[in-house]
Design brief:
Blueprint lengths: L18 H15 L1 H31 L5 E5 L2 H6 L4 H10 L5 E5 L2 H4 L9 H12 L3 E6 L20 H19 L5 E6 L15 H14 L5 E4 L16 E6 L2 E3 L7 E3 L4 H15 L2 E8 L15 H4 L5 H13 L4 E5 L1 H9 L5 H10 L1
Parallel strand pairs: 1-2, 1-10, 2-3, 3-4, 4-5, 5-6, 6-9, 9-10
Antiparallel strand pairs: 7-8
Helix pairs in contact: 1-2, 2-9, 7-8, 11-13, 12-13
Length: about 375
């Protein structure tokens, strides 16, 4: 005999049966059909619980951070300014004087400072620190072999033919020389060690955790006063729980890039702002360490491996225009992280001075004031 639940029962004629009862009945019927239906139901329930937990952690994190002051800054790399045909000194002056930036992430490329083995040239980094201090800006200094911008790892040419057991001690000697030179500068706020170390993007050959641990221990011994930031590898999930445990974690957020492998189209990452709040919140719950957004996309991503100066303004606008930059900055704020470094300040200056398009510069001026 089949059983059914009529919409109107004879006992309560004219009164519709409550919807939850009907939904429950349909759920039970679906559950009883076969094992695969049970698998589907369990999977859906598990996903709802996971997303709900993630969202709850995100909302907790965002609420816990909202009372803290927002510190927004930029990454500045003189080599990149040169590659765009810009004067690095004028570019940095404009960033400090016109955008009123008070937080800078600077780099210390090994290839720039120890181009000749055993001989250090700190002149370029010296004038950057001098300008930062004149403007009252704070500095997060990137150190190590892997630092921001292509090709990601920046060894000097003389390292090319040396085995790791030779070049690694030379790298740490160089890093200590950088630390010793700048650790007492009043503008120095933190170090960022080995940018996105485990990310395979770029021309790097060594990703051993042992090297990262060794470098971290060396940095903390050379300068125990300043915090060390180690960044996650990419946008995706997972918690970096392995050694070393830094003082702060960093995360990069790119929202629109060129997919060169599958679709060969621009790709928009689907993650909402609260997802990054979850990553930062979960990190804080598991390690008690804070997270900074040390690289928020503010620059176009050219297609087909082109450089910016090979890409038309119309094409650049497909991945970054003024409206998208404003939306991206709002997105960064919505993550709950209160230290945000924007990526692309040299690019905004290039668009304004070389392409005669000040739209991105004007957005940054409004947001960074």
């Amino acid at each position: 005999m089949s059983h059914h639940f009529p919409l109107f029962s004879s006992k309560n004629k004219g009164k519709p049966q409550r919807l939850p009862s009907r939904v429950w009945y349909q759920f039970v019927r679906y559950w009883q059909r076969n094992i695969w239906h049970k698998v589907v139901v369990c999977t859906v329930i598990f996903m709802i619980l996971c997303v709900g937990t993630m969202y709850g952690i995100a909302r907790w994190y965002i609420a816990s951070e909202v009372h803290k002051p927002l510190a927004m800054g930029v990454t500045f790399i003189p080599d990149y300014a040169k590659s765009l045909g810009l004067d690095p000194v004028k570019t940095m002056d404009a960033i400090l004087d016109e955008l009123h930036v008070k937080h800078l992430r600077l780099v210390s490329y090994w290839s720039d400072i120890e181009d000749d083995k055993g001989s250090y040239d700190f002149s370029q980094l010296d004038w950057q620190f001098n300008k930062a201090e004149s403007a009252g800006a704070k500095v997060s200094l990137s150190i190590g072999l892997r630092q921001p911008r292509w090709p990601e790892c920046h060894p000097p040419a003389w390292v090319a033919n040396e085995p790791k057991n030779v070049w690694q001690p030379q790298l740490e000697t160089y890093m200590k020389a950088v630390i010793d030179r700048y650790k007492n500068r009043p503008s120095l706020e933190s170090y960022q060690l080995e940018n996105e170390y485990f990310n395979t993007f770029g021309e790097c050959t060594d990703y051993s955790r042992e090297r990262l641990i060794s470098e971290f221990n060396m940095v903390k011994k050379a300068d125990p006063k300043h915090p060390v930031i180690i960044s996650r590898s990419n946008n995706y999930g997972g918690l970096p729980l392995g050694k070393p445990t830094p003082d702060l974690f960093g995360i990069s957020v790119y929202r629109r890039s060129w997919d060169a492998n599958v679709t060969r189209r621009y790709f928009e990452y689907p993650f909402p702002a609260w997802y990054y709040g979850f990553l930062a919140g979960a990190q804080k719950l598991t390690t008690s360490k804070d997270t900074v957004l040390h690289e928020l996309q503010g620059e176009a991503w050219p297609p087909n491996g082109q450089s910016i100066d090979q890409t038309s303004l119309a094409e650049q606008n497909k991945s970054m225009d003024a409206n998208r930059l404003k939306q991206t900055i709002d997105f960064g704020k919505a993550t709950g992280m209160r230290t945000i470094d924007l990526w692309g300040a040299e690019y905004w200056y290039y668009r304004m001075n070389t392409l005669h398009d000040p739209s991105l510069w004007n957005v940054a001026k409004q947001e960074l004031k």
